[in-house]
Amino acid sequence: MRLAIYTGIILAGGYTCLTPALAADPTGDWRVADGVANIRVAQCGGSMWGAVSWEKQPGGRDENNPDVSKKNRPTLGMATLIDMKKKPGVDQWEGQVYNAKDGQLYSATITPAGTDQLEIKGCVMGFLCGGETWTRVGPPIPSSPANAMAKGMPKTTGTASKAAPTGSAAPATGAQKTAAAAKPGQKTAADPVGDICLLPEIAGFAH
What we know:
The chain contains three helices and eight strands; from the N terminus they run ββββββββααα. It holds the Pfam family DUF2147.
């Protein structure tokens, strides 16, 4: 059985070569074997998740999903690697994978192979296993700010200084406005998916 999984990310350029220390990091953007899409993998709520971040042919729909209510949902931003937990003592994560080409969930594992390949293997009922190798197209992803938000930030104490009176602060410069707008994981025109841990499908499950 050939496991053909639909996934993706827009490439804004190359990425810096990774060091051997990062060889076991499965996070980042990965081009699927047939090149039709990329999967963005990130750690969300203690598990690895993956979602479609780029499509070779934009506008895909989850038309093979057996759930009629989901047949028209966009495949861009759709979760494909689901709640994958690290196996003790090995650089391998196991959970489920959603295959949009047949609308089915499979038990699966992901295993980094060096710094620039990710091996994914899926099985039906523990047998009839198949797999493929994905190629890295983006660097590892730092821990999502969504994980910190899920734990809850400490409340501000009453000793915090009061805000300066209106009109006393100097106007923000263009650079300051740009920095304020560039929030971690924020969606942009070049990256419409952003931090996958903030996607409703993943955030609702992982947190």
